[in-house]
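// run 5 | inverse folding | seed 20
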């Protein structure tokens, strides 16, 4: 870690940044909230809760009213053991939801959580503003071209294996170094493909043990050496409730604690189920660590 740590000595966690999508800017002058909107029957926490277009759109609009800056809409579960659905099924789950939300709030920044380039293309044509790919373009080699052509941001996440296999005894020589250098290669590949704005996500829970997850959280500031915004997605994950012998439903307090530690590590975005609590955490952390003018 010596080399990575040396690279971040002069890196400011909350430097002024902005994401650009189709001529619109989202300024990351303070941590932003990305709210999760799952349109799936089998997601680990809220699968099946928003079974119709109307119900999902209402939930999305409620999350925006609570203060979310971005809505991350997904039609493919990526929980451990999840199986793939096809492009058409995934699109059928989210296409109408995107349209309905934008009909009410056309300026909404919608992110689409997909590793299918065709789904990404349809979503961007429908008005989505960015793509969140858990495979970082490795599961569909056309993803980078689609994102670059549409001139939108892309989240690159680290995952060891696939959703079906990722929790089958994940192993690393050094999890922080291994994830860092893997993401570094994907960032360079994305930029070389013409993508202007890249965000990285270390992939808590995606091919990691509890120990791996907490090692990454403890070293989150190391990833600033990549010189791109860092997103943390810990909300209600098993790294919380398994450690506390609980359930996803009982993991809100633990989520808030980990959000505070992620902010202390310089996270620029929090990907969350619970917007109000996350906003409060951001506000309190700002009191603890006020930004200098």
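// decoded
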């Amino acid at each position: 870690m010596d080399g990575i740590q040396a690279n971040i000595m002069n890196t400011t966690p909350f430097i002024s940044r902005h994401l650009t999508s189709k001529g619109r800017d989202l300024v990351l002058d303070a941590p932003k909230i990305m709210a999760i909107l799952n349109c799936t029957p089998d997601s680990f926490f809220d699968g099946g809760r928003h079974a119709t277009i109307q119900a999902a759109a209402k939930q999305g609009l409620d999350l925006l009213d609570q203060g979310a800056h971005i809505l991350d809409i997904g039609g493919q579960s990526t929980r451990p053991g999840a199986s793939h659905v096809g492009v058409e099924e995934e699109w059928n789950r989210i296409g109408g939801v995107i349209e309905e939300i934008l009909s009410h709030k056309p300026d909404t920044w919608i992110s689409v959580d997909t590793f299918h380039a065709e789904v990404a293309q349809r979503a961007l044509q429908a008005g989505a503003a960015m793509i969140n790919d858990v495979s970082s373009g490795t599961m569909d080699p056309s993803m980078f071209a689609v994102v670059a052509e549409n001139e939108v941001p892309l989240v690159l996440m680290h995952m060891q294996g696939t959703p079906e296999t990722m929790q089958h005894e994940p192993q690393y020589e050094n999890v922080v170094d291994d994830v860092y250098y893997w993401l570094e290669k994907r960032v360079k590949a994305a930029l070389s493909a013409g993508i202007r704005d890249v965000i990285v996500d270390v992939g808590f829970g995606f091919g990691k043990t509890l120990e791996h997850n907490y090692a990454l959280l403890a070293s989150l500031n190391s990833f600033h050496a990549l010189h791109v915004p860092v997103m943390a997605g810990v909300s209600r994950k098993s790294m919380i409730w398994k450690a506390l012998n609980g359930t996803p439903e009982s993991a809100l307090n633990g989520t808030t604690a980990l959000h505070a530690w992620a902010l202390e590590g310089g996270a620029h975005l929090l990907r969350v189920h619970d917007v109000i609590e996350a906003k409060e955490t951001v506000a309190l952390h700002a009191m603890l660590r006020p930004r200098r003018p």
